[in-house]
Amino acid sequence: MKKRGVLLALAVVAVAGIALWYTKWRDRPATRATPAVTRGATTAETSPPTTAMTAPQLRARVIVTVTERGKGPIAGASVRVIGEDGAPAVAITDANGVAKLEDLEPGDYRISASATGFVPAASPARTLAAGADEALALALEPGGRPLTGTVSDASGGPVTDARVSAVRMGANGRAGEAVATTVTAVDGTYALTVAEGHTIVSVTSPDYAPQARSIEIGPAGAKADFALVPGGVIEGVVRDARTSEPVPGALVEAERDGGMKFGEAGRRRAKAGTDGRFRIGGLRPGAYEVSATAESRRTREPTVVGLGVAEQVTDIELLVGTAPTIAGTVVDETNAPVPGIAVLAMGRGRDGARTKTDAKGAFVMSGLSPGTGALVSSTTVPAMVGAVPTRSSMSVTCSATPRPTTVGSRVRRD
Fold first, then answer.
1. pTM for the full model?
2. Once rounded to an integer, what is the mean pLDDT over residues 193-206?
3. Measured at the alpha carbon of residue 294, what is the angle toward residues 292 and 300, in degrees to the nearest 5?
4. 329 with 341: CB under 8 angstroms?
5. Collapsing DSSP states into helix, strand and coil, what is residue 386?
6. Can you name the residues that pair with 4 across neighbouring β-strands?
7. Is 20 helix (H, G, I), strand (E, B) or coil?
């Protein structure tokens, strides 16, 4: 493929007032205490909020048509769409074999389909841009083996509407892309059609800790029963750091130490209600980093919450304040805007933000942590943006300066 140059013109905008915030509050201890089970700073004291520089990001939609190969549509098939955060969305096909999954965040997705009497199938990973409305088709082959079982709670009662997912493990020990999924009936039973071989089966339900186990699927199929235990709960409120007023609609994330397992999201999310309160349930025991964002506001540092088996931690207070914003435009060597380019800001530890350029090649990322990080742009074939051609990135400092800083760099990409 012919190479061409790409110029990433970035306007690094540190929101007015950050200087005051950063110098005044950097070494000041938190003024609000959190429960004893929490560790780490939660405060994000700031100067008065400035005018937001971002518009709400457009969501994406994907329409999936599931058919029997060489024949007609399959009604009642399960379509599973999973993004980078590991939280799957599932929809059932209608009489025409069509399933619609809407309100998806822009990003990279894996899509698979399954149905009774058919071997599960998956499409190649695809990227959904902001505002995308895409369609794809998946053809299933007849066959597979039955996997059945019952999901109950610790008392023996059935768990209804629990999500059961199964994926065949490859020779390299990695999970495949084609995932079969279903939900339990009112009596807690489930039935899936899966490929023969070594399979990982997981069960998730909002109020229970997720479970997963390894099952060998033979010519006659297999049976796997699960007994779930109640999950842990983290509850609290999101407040503005300056006014102490509740922040309605804030997005709260709890990320578990130790990474993600199949069938279990690496981070769990919840949206605060009109009173700023949030609840995240169904959590495994462990340590969780809890943070919140609300447009251009965010928590300065995550709060670490330790959970025991079925433990409930309440009255967590997350304070959000104005944080740095990075804005810019991606253009090619002719200075024409380049739409649909992924831009990633990587900060301290797991912190960062990701977006894509719009039709005019522009992008905005807000709610970032102060400090120095890397800014990366990529196309269909990943390409790093930096002073050195390929395999490098641009260092960007979200500092305390109140004046915008403009930086640029040129690299080659395929």
1. 0.63
2. 92
3. 45
4. no
5. coil
6. 413
7. helix
